[in-house]
């Protein structure tokens, strides 16, 4: 006779979920999620990584209400402790690509640069990427950005707020409006609350945990753009870079640049050498160390002060003046070179300086503001 003490039914294999036919659809989803949670949360010696399809399933259940709040919290912290594996990140990207928004280029449009940076924003250094974006767009290089409102754990300044501070309000646009603006003017900002509201589902859990979950790593690798593009992804620690390479290869990305940028983003520092790597067509990573000192751009990285101060400095930097001008010249020069619009890094930096002097970024901003004002009329 089996006693309760000897009954090991609670330790059934995660691959054999026990689901009663009498269960409600919601209960069945929670039972399925429980098996995935057991697989990654079983302890140091018995926990296992999820397959790509299992990670996809887990992410969909969390985003669509198939997992309870307790299950979501347990999954996110267990996954953080054991660290995500490349195929798990790819599975998360599969979910985002299937459930999230889709952005397409016109047949005759230059392939875009898609920047992947932390969704929880910046809080220590002044962001340069919105201004780099304007200079790139002004040079004919389309750019895709994505982000959200202020969110845990950093609650830093966001792309939407930064653009709004210099007069470009990208809030309140439908995904069709974003698509039109991208095709006409070369800029798209995918704003999660409006274009991918399912992605907001996990914000309460992320806030309660107080730590970035592996989902934050997947956000660095995701773009809503479908088709040929150059994906630029920020990273902080070397192990996360190699994991990103593997995950993106599994995801079918053909042209990838990883950047050890400021605060985990894609802004290259001017205070030290910039560490980047490029992978094309699943080849070996090609490391590029770029030295701002060699191109007259060495100095302190501008610090974050306030939206008002940033907006004033941003307008100056677009014209080659003020405390952010040097960082903007360096970042634009690097990305002109990396995107193939300049034959060398030196040429890219020189071209960036000329663009600042000629007000190319300011003109691009004015055109985008005029387009935004016409939407909805």
Unreliable sequence segments: 1-16
SSE sequence, one letter per element: HHHHEEHEHHEHHHEEHEEEHHHH
For the largest sheet, list the strands in their spatial order: 4-3-2-6-7-8-9
Domain count: the total is 2
Could you say which overall geometry the principal axes of the C-alpha atoms support?
globular
Q: What is the helical fraction, as a range of percent?
A: 40-55%
| Biggest sheet overview | 7 strands, mixed
Question: N- to C-terminal separation?
Answer: 77 Å
Oligomeric state of the chains present here? single chain
Mean pLDDT, to the nearest integer, reads: 93
- By CATH, the architecture of the largest domain is named 3-Layer(aba) Sandwich
Work out the strand percent.
Answer: 5-15%
Would you report the number of β strands? 9
For this structure, the CATH topology of the largest domain is Pyrimidine Nucleoside Phosphorylase, Chain A, domain 2
- How big is the Rg? 22 Å
Judged by helices, strands and strand pairing, the structural class is: alpha/beta
CATH class of the largest domain: Alpha Beta
Number of helices: 15
CATH superfamily grouping of the largest domain: Nucleoside phosphorylase/phosphoribosyltransferase catalytic domain
Topology:
Layout: H1 25-40, H2 52-63, H3 69-82, H4 86-99, E1 103-104, E2 113-116, H5 129-138, E3 143-147, H6 159-165, H7 175-185, E4 187-191, H8 192-195, H9 203-209, H10 214-221, E5 225-226, E6 230-234, H11 238-250, E7 255-259, E8 274-280, E9 286-290, H12 307-317, H13 325-338, H14 345-357, H15 360-374
Parallel strand pairs: 1-5, 2-3, 2-6, 3-4, 6-7
Antiparallel strand pairs: 7-8, 8-9
